[in-house]
Amino acid sequence: MSKRQVLTIAGSDSGGGAGIQADVKTFQERNVFGTSVITAVTAQNTLGVHGIYNVPLEGVRAQMDAVFSDLDIAALKTGMLVDESYITLIADELATHPDIPSVIDPVMVAKGGALLMKTEALKAMRDKLVPMATVVTPNIPEAEALAGMQIKTEEDMKKAATILRKKGSKNVLIKGGHMLDKTCARDYLLMEDQTERWYETPRIDTKDTHGTGCTFSACIAAELAKGKTVEQAVKIGKAYIQAAISQPIHVGNGHGPTNHWA
Ligand code: PLP
């Protein structure tokens, strides 16, 4: 039987912990066939981002044409998109594939502080790409930027999710890892039919969390490709990411990557 094929449209991390590399490793571990459209090449390791080299738009378009003209993509995710021109290109492409479930990870800033999306691109992300999403997966700072509000409490997380649903994302997952609670990380999912779920896991004290967001959204895309519901896919993703963070593999001298074998 042919394997389910999944696409990531994102940036490359030469250090192997985040971006395209994290996505394709996750696809492999989740038993789907991973494909990739690379939007930018980062010179990066566990210590930080040392340079960003954008792939020309024409090259991004050519990669998408090559993938979509041959492979049968069952779900996709997006990651690092540097500016409005990339966001518009991808949004226009997704509009031609309305039946492919899409996980939009609105990557903005790397853990080390490097800007992975220009701030001027925020409006395009909110108004062009978020409306195309089957599920959008912001962390707290990303949700604050997209919803245009501060998030201090769990009530605020719910409000921000409602705002993003109104922007057109069918489902919204706000990852609560940046909240101040020292004991647990609570993620909030607001679904298409207005039902909601909280996912709570004990907080793990580690610096080895590089690529967690990429891995989470890639896992959700892989599970959607296998026919899981958004609710099931998020539940599986949360368990996978928790296992990945709790068993660090001690790679590099900075923020180590999550453990994709977990
Ligand atoms: N580099 C690339 C290419 C990414 O796509 C991402 C995250 O999405 C990162 C770095 C940031 O990873 P982290 O914030 O987990 O270090």
From TrEMBL:
InterPro entries: HMP/HMP-P_kinase_dom, PM/HMP-P_kinase-1, Ribokinase-like
Single GO biological process annotation from the record: thiamine biosynthetic process
Pathway: Cofactor biosynthesis; thiamine diphosphate biosynthesis; 4-amino-2-methyl-5-diphosphomethylpyrimidine from 5-amino-1-(5-phospho-D-ribosyl)imidazole: step 3/3; Cofactor biosynthesis; thiamine diphosphate biosynthesis; 4-amino-2-methyl-5-diphosphomethylpyrimidine from 5-amino-1-(5-phospho-D-ribosyl)imidazole: step 2/3
UniProt keyword annotations, A-Z: ATP-binding, Kinase, Nucleotide-binding, Thiamine biosynthesis, Transferase
Full protein name: Hydroxymethylpyrimidine/phosphomethylpyrimidine kinase
Enzyme nomenclature, EC number: 2.7.1.49, 2.7.4.7
A Pfam family reported for this protein in Swiss-Prot or TrEMBL: Phos_pyr_kin
Chain ranges of the Pyridoxamine kinase/Phosphomethylpyrimidine kinase domain: 13-259
Signal sequence region: none
Record's GO cellular component terms: cytosol
Reactions listed under catalytic activity: 4-amino-2-methyl-5-(phosphooxymethyl)pyrimidine + ATP = 4-amino-2-methyl-5-(diphosphooxymethyl)pyrimidine + ADP; 4-amino-5-hydroxymethyl-2-methylpyrimidine + ATP = 4-amino-2-methyl-5-(phosphooxymethyl)pyrimidine + ADP + H(+)
Recorded family membership: Belongs to the ThiD family.
GO molecular function: ATP binding; hydroxymethylpyrimidine kinase activity; phosphomethylpyrimidine kinase activity
